[in-house]
Design goal:
By secondary structure, this protein is mainly α. It is built from 14 helices and no strands. It has one domain. It is 73% helix and 0% strand. Helix 2 packs antiparallel against helix 14, helix 9 packs antiparallel against helix 11 and helix 11 crosses helix 13.
Length: 346
């Protein structure tokens, strides 16, 4: 039997995602819920400042970086040190853990929301993977499967988050400290940038490996309910090790499509809508369309991972309503045992 390629697995998963668009809508709503906690106070503050500014129309149509720098300096209570942390995350020195504890304003809110996002992520992935394996599903099935998988998937998500934080420190920060003197003694700045680029590449590879490992365990955890928990866990790890090229191919295709969306956004440039204030409305709508397409790709990725690991659906797993009861057909009674005829008397 010919083994399926990564492209075929992703295409089947993406087709399944298109057949169940309510899953992408659920992910979109969850992201909107998280974003609104930060978007609303920031947008209200900017709205108040722009309404009092003669540059409001021009700033909305063509954002001015200098104006944004002024807002950061004059309203430190609003943004805090979050922009500095975001800009320094991938600098050669990186961001130390002590700097995260001093976060203020939006940065402090973002760190607090990170833990809430971990819970929502575990719920959403459990709902998506559980619903994808249903012959027919709905948002009710999504919620039920998400709550059913939440305890186990929350442990997996926390473990992945801890591994990612540790990898950032060990792979990126510690390597920067070890190579600090070497980088300073290099002849050109391009060589120093090349060393930093290699460190970033190593970090991306480690992050991708962690994600694929955890997603493999999640997919097998849902697909094989007939196995005990420890067996499901090690089956997922084994599937990750055996099918790593195929899984990485599915992941790479989803990342390429996501990057293509960003390139398309830059090419179309919806923000260049002139100085009309109503240009902001189609800009927001077009952004949400792109976010929804990104959610479709994300659901297709999870379906592709499940397709690459488990190609058959366990019949005992389905929660679909049973068909009309068939009439019991009585089994034929066993033939009565008869004694062999006695031989005739002479």
């Amino acid at each position: 039997m010919k083994r399926p390629s990564a492209l075929s697995c992703f295409l089947k998963g993406f087709a399944l995602s298109l057949s169940k668009p309510y899953l992408a809508a659920a992910l979109w709503l969850l992201q909107l819920l998280l974003a609104s906690v930060i978007i609303l106070p920031v947008s209200n503050s900017l709205h108040d400042m722009l309404d009092r500014s003669p540059m409001a129309d021009r700033v909305v149509a063509n954002p001015d970086y200098g104006w944004w720098e002024t807002v950061k300096q004059t309203h430190p209570d609003l943004l805090g040190n979050f922009p500095d942390l975001a800009e320094g995350l991938l600098t050669p020195e990186g961001v130390k853990s002590t700097a995260i504890g001093d976060a203020k304003g939006v940065g402090a809110a973002a760190i607090s929301l990170c833990f809430f996002a971990i819970v929502l992520h575990a719920f959403a992935v459990g709902g998506v993977l559980g619903t994808l394996r249903e012959p027919s599903g709905s948002l009710v099935v999504f919620g039920r499967e998400g709550m059913r998988r939440l305890p186990a998937f929350l442990l997996f998500t926390l473990a992945a988050f801890a591994l990612a934080v540790a990898s950032y420190r060990w792979v990126y920060l510690d390597s920067g400290e070890a190579l600090k003197v070497t980088v300073q003694n290099l002849d050109t700045e391009k060589q120093a940038l090349a060393v930093t680029g290699l460190r970033l590449l190593a970090l991306v590879i480690v992050f991708s490996t962690i994600k694929l490992l955890v997603d493999s365990v999640r997919a097998v955890w849902v697909a094989r309910p007939d196995l005990p928990p420890i067996s499901r866990f090690f089956t997922g790890v084994g599937g990750f090790l055996v099918r790593f090229p195929r899984l990485f191919g599915v992941f790479a295709i989803s990342m390429l499509l996501t990057a293509g969306l960003y390139v398309l956004w830059l090419v179309l440039d919806p923000s260049a809508g002139g100085e009309a204030r109503f240009a902001l409305v189609p800009l927001i709508l077009s952004q949400q369309v792109f976010v929804f397409i990104r959610c479709l790709i994300k659901v297709g990725y999870y379906a592709g991972i499940s397709e690459a690991l488990t190609r058959t659906i366990s019949p005992e797993y389905s929660y679909a309503a049973a068909g009309p009861a068939r009439e019991a057909v009585p089994e034929p009674a066993p033939a009565e045992e008869t004694a062999p005829p006695e031989p005739a008397a002479d």
